[in-house]
Amino acid sequence: MADPASSDPQRTGDLDRDNTLLQAAAFAEHLQRSGVAFLPRANPDRVAEFKQRFAPSIPIAPATEKKAAVEQVAEEKILPKPPESRPESRPESRPESRPEFQSTSIRGEAAKRYPCEARPVSQRTAELDTLASTVAACTKCPELVHCRTQTVFGEGDPQARFVFFGEGPGADEDRTGRPFVGKAGQLLDKMIVACKLTRDEVYILNTVKCRPPGNRNPEPEEIENCRPFFESQLEIIRPQYIVCLGAVGTQALLRSKLPIGKLRGKFHRYFDSKVVATYHPAYLLRNPAAKKAAWADLQMMLKDAGISLR
Ligand code: SF4
Hints:
Keywords: 4Fe-4S, DNA damage, DNA repair, Hydrolase, Iron, Iron-sulfur, Metal-binding. This protein has twelve helices and six strands.
């Protein structure tokens, strides 16, 4: 049956305009998270002028309720108010205990902000490099240190909008020092491409940085040993979205004991980031029927991010 919207030019124009507005707001929000401290407030007259020049077929919203809605989006999404008190700069040393994260639905209690301000990309790169050196010398987990060839820190864009958060290195990762490079990594690459992204545009990391022997799950104590490292990575990158791959990473990040089947299908919060829980690519290779659910999780995120797959 034909889509009624496709035969209604007015409604098609409305949908195009709303979609453009959502994408612009999401992009502006990303810029701010990436350290762009100021974005100019939109001038309605200039917006109308540009619309007339470049998109005359799209009707301009009357200056009534829709204009108020646009301004509200600009206020809430493009120009978020800074919190009451923020630290002036990054503290010299990272505190031992970090603020308790509340594993709530995104509609629940207002999320807490990352403790520090966003840094410029050069500073993020330098901080990640320093952290990677610390990780490479880490000996907190005796069994993992004994078995590892090298640590696997993570890689990607230090100001990525999307982060993929896995469990721990496997044999291929332990050998190369890079995350998700084996068969599961190849499937993750396909998932990233399906999201209209590239591996260079995202950041990929794991919960623990050393390969557990025999590909066993990391022990709770090992996860806690490594927690300061992955929490610091996320704080430096400050992604808009964190895709948790599998139960181990999801439960560690959200401090939850719920199974992945109960955590997926909705947004959670980790400081400023929206968290999407889905199945690990290794699980999807063993259970191809679950790919449909994993794709639904990613589509939920893409829709929220204003990324159209059309
Ligand atoms: S898993 Fe993490 S905490 Fe444990 S030894 Fe490796 S780097 Fe250190």
